[in-house]
Amino acid sequence: QVQLVESGGGLVQAGGSLRLSCAASGISFRFNSVGWYRQAPGKQRELVASMTSVDTTNYADSVRGRFTISKDNAKNTVYLQMNSLKPEDTAVYYCAYGVRYWGQGTRVTVSS
Questions:
Q1: Distance from CA of residue 57 to its chain's centroid?
Q2: SS3 helix, strand, coil % of the chain, rounded to 5?
Q3: ∠49-52-54 over CA atoms, to 5°?
Q4: What confidence tens digit (pLDDT) does each residue in 35-75 have?
Q5: What is residue 64's DSSP assignment?
Q6: HSE on the CB side for 8, CA within 13 Å?
Q7: Angle at 25 between CA 29 and CA 10, to 5 degrees
Q8: Tens digit of each residue's pLDDT (9 = 90 or more) over 3-20
């Protein structure tokens, strides 16, 4: 059974940092791309950061230079380090394995 479990969300002041984690079971991040997405209230889900199986990364323009995606293959976990957070980063953040498997999301709220 495939399962992706996000954690690490919460409430933080603007300028602060959070690290999100996505722990996987039933699949391996060694063999497929992984992405972090977010969905703000009233908005469409958008790709924030992604990493291929060979560790090539890509970022949305809105987060480039502030967010970093990484993974630990031994722990089968992917991370999203978020620095210099802004109120517009407020959203539910999801990790996805390819486009087939999704986690349940973790909420990030950035106060001004």
A1: 12
A2: 5, 55, 45
A3: 135
A4: 999 999 999 999 999 999 999 999 999 999 999 999 999 99
A5: B
A6: 18
A7: 85
A8: 999 999 999 999 999 999
